[in-house]
Write a structure and sequence with these properties.
about 20% strand; Transpos_ISL3; elongated; Nucleotidyltransferase, domain 5; five-stranded mixed beta sheet; about 50% helix; about 425 residues; alpha/beta; 10 strands
């Protein structure tokens, strides 16, 4: 193979391939030399008075694989001397850092692999020690996290109609939680707050004035009173939207509560069937298969109460999907609440009480149709990250890893 083609494959314009030293089934060793014959002094910046003083043993640098083989570059370690400032130094290569055995391209490629999986997995792919990959990752994460954070906040601050998403994610379910702040329109995660109580949120706002300087058009969150109080204090002019997924979950819960009541009155065979196929009641009917719709009709035939609550749940989905604007949505919401008033069940009455209390936030969805669906997807990434890294104890390292994991598409920018 001609050496000029090897130069193009290695993507190292500062080097020229001198010869191939050895090649076998697993490794490729290449002798390379720098294209230039002069280099500027690191102290005075001039190359006029720089002279060669000899050579040490050549540096052996691991580079990206070629044809699936581990590739090693043998480059000369040239001693230089500046007569102007009487400084000695060694020839510095751009493709590799000082005193490093892996090229910059190799390190960045290895770190990119490790960010999406684990250090052990990337080590197996690159055939290097896992401790080496972990060390590369630890060195790269702070700078990468800072770059991503700066870019995400800059985009959020410059957005004309910024829509924020606020939701909590469990570190240990039922015990410890984090709160994530998301730019829904820009599809980025801005920051992670330790805790989800009102005092934690207020403390964050005091410590981060750049958050208070945002001017969101709308903020999407669940029905937690702490979030709504906090957002109304920080951004009184923003539209507060109750997340559709969480709101619909309250209606689903009341439907399942009625199902359990009905289930206890049925025959053993019908009871077993309703219990085993209760999930057919949750999704909209038109999303089910033809077979699923037939089985659903069998379940609804067990009780008029169950059918009436299911129809009430279906009407709520229709209201969400078909309300053309905010004014019509207000009328439709009141009509849906009156439909629920006709159902005599404690779970339905409790749900209606909650819905009427949060009426403005629920109906505001039709002023700005955003949900926290992407946020829930990021929660899955966070949980996968926690399992891979065994719940990193270093708080700053943990947050940096989450921000990179949730904004991974920004690595390609």
């Amino acid at each position: 193979m001609q050496t000029q083609y090897i130069n193009e494959m290695l993507n190292l314009p500062e080097l020229r391939i001198h010869q191939i030293l050895s090649i076998d089934t697993d490794e490729l060793h290449i002798d390379a030399i720098p294209l230039g014959d002069k280099q500027s002094c690191p102290c005075c910046g001039s190359d006029q008075d720089v002279i060669l003083k000899g050579r040490n043993e050549p540096r052996i640098v691991r580079h990206l694989p070629v044809f699936g083989k581990k590739t090693y570059l043998h480059v000369p370690s040239i001693r230089m001397h500046c007569n102007r400032c009487e400084t000695g130094f060694v020839w510095a290569y751009k493709f590799v850092g000082p005193k490093q055995r892996y090229s910059r391209l190799f390190r960045s490629h290895t770190v990119e692999q490790a960010l999406g999986s684990t250090a052990a997995h990337s080590a197996r792919m690159q055939r290097v020690p896992a401790s080496t990959v972990q060390r590369m990752q630890e060195e790269a994460i702070p700078a990468e996290q800072e770059r991503i954070r700066e870019q995400a906040w800059k985009e959020a601050a410059a957005s004309d109609r910024l829509v924020l998403g606020v939701d909590d994610c469990a570190i240990k379910k039922g015990h410890t939680y984090n709160t994530g702040i998301h730019n829904l329109r820009g599809e980025t995660m801005l920051d992670v707050i330790s805790g989800r109580k009102l005092d934690d949120l207020r403390a964050y706002a005091l410590q981060h004035p750049d958050f208070r300087q945002l001017s969101p058009y709308a903020v999407v969150m669940d029905l937690a009173p702490a979030y709504h109080t906090w957002i109304s204090e920080c951004f009184p002019d923003a539209i507060r939207i109750a997340d559709r997924f969480h709101v619909h979950g309250h209606v689903i819960e009341s439907l399942q509560a009625v199902r359990k009541t009905v289930q206890s009155t049925l025959s053993p065979r019908a009871k077993a069937l309703l219990k085993s196929q209760h999930r057919l009641l949750n999704p909209p009917k038109d999303t089910l298969t033809e077979e699923g719709q037939k089985r659903l009709e069998i379940l609804l035939g067990y009780s008029l109460l169950l059918r009436s609550v299911w129809e009430w749940k279906e009407a709520f989905s229709v209201w969400y999907d078909n309300s053309p604007n905010h004014a019509v949505a207000l009328l439709g919401f009141d009509r849906w609440c009156r439909q629920g008033d006709q159902i005599d069940h404690v779970a339905v009455r409790a749900t209606l009480k909650t819905m009427r209390h949060w009426k403005d936030a629920i109906v505001n969805y039709h002023r700005c149709r955003f949900t926290n669906a992407t946020v829930e997807g990021r929660h899955n990434r966070i949980k996968a990250y926690q399992r891979r890294h065994y719940f990193t104890r270093n708080r700053s390292r943990y947050i940096a890893g989450i921000l990179i994991e949730c904004n991974r598409h920004r690595l390609l920018d």
